[in-house]
Design goal:
It is a single chain. By secondary structure, the protein is mainly alpha-helical. It has helices spanning 21-35, 42-49, 53-59, 63-83, 91-109, 113-122, 127-149, 156-175, 187-207. Helix 1 (21-35) crosses helix 2. The chain is elongated. The termini are far apart. 26% of the residues are buried.
């Protein structure tokens, strides 16, 4: 005779199972904000979501990927958007449009984007990783400018432009933190804040005679 299989384990009442990646992510971000990133464990996330630890690891290999995975996707998409721009469009106008468009897409993709940013910007446990990820974001702009104009990616001009745009973007996001629920309605503010900086940087490129072909037009 075959042994009778044990009855399925019942979930705790009042804690329905979470079925999607974004819903588990929402639970995790809320736990990180409420209890701190360091104090929140994968078992805690699984318990609060009503799923197994295996289910959590099915989506993310490590706890930090829950936080940084979507941010890194945001950075990669920024590079893709920049590379797809019309070569005839002024460089810094293209950068400005892509930065705003990319954030709009990220907000559309996930209502958690600003909550994640609040966590990244405030958690001491994540601060050691923060610089590397933001440098990657700046490098998306740096690399685009360098390729567009045939200048060294490690040079002063490309690095300065990437760093300046990243700093402005970060400052705008921080200014939105007091908002109870930042929304796409704030995107024109980002565009407006980036406009004078990008215009100034475009003038710098134009003054040095660097057109998008990489040729010196001052000769």
């Amino acid at each position: 005779m075959h042994a009778t299989p044990p009855p399925p384990r019942r979930r705790s009442p009042g804690r329905p199972a979470v079925s999607s990646r974004e819903e588990i992510e929402r639970v995790a971000i809320r736990l990180f904000l409420d209890h701190g990133y360091g104090a929140t464990t994968i078992p805690m996330i699984a318990e609060a979501s009503g799923v197994s630890r295996t289910s959590v690891f099915r989506y993310w290999g490590t706890k930090s990927e829950i936080v940084w995975g979507t941010f890194d996707l945001h950075t990669r998409r920024l590079s893709d958007l920049l590379d797809a721009t019309d070569p005839a469009e002024p460089t810094m106008r293209a950068v400005r449009a892509c930065v705003v468009r990319n954030l709009a897409l990220s907000i559309e993709d996930s209502s958690l984007w600003m909550e994640r940013f609040a966590l990244l910007d405030s958690s001491p446990d994540l601060r050691s990783e923060e610089s590397a990820h933001w440098l990657s974001w700046a490098a998306a702009v740096t690399g685009f400018v360098a390729r567009r104009h045939g200048i060294p990616e490690s040079g002063v001009m490309a690095q300065s432009i990437g760093g300046a745009v990243q700093a402005a973007f970060l400052a705008v996001l921080r200014s939105w933190l007091p908002e109870p629920s930042p929304s796409p309605a704030l995107l024109p503010e980002l565009d407006g804040e980036l406009a004078p900086l990008c215009d100034l940087l475009q003038t710098w490129l134009d003054t040095l005679g660097l057109d998008p072909t990489g040729l010196d037009t001052t000769v």
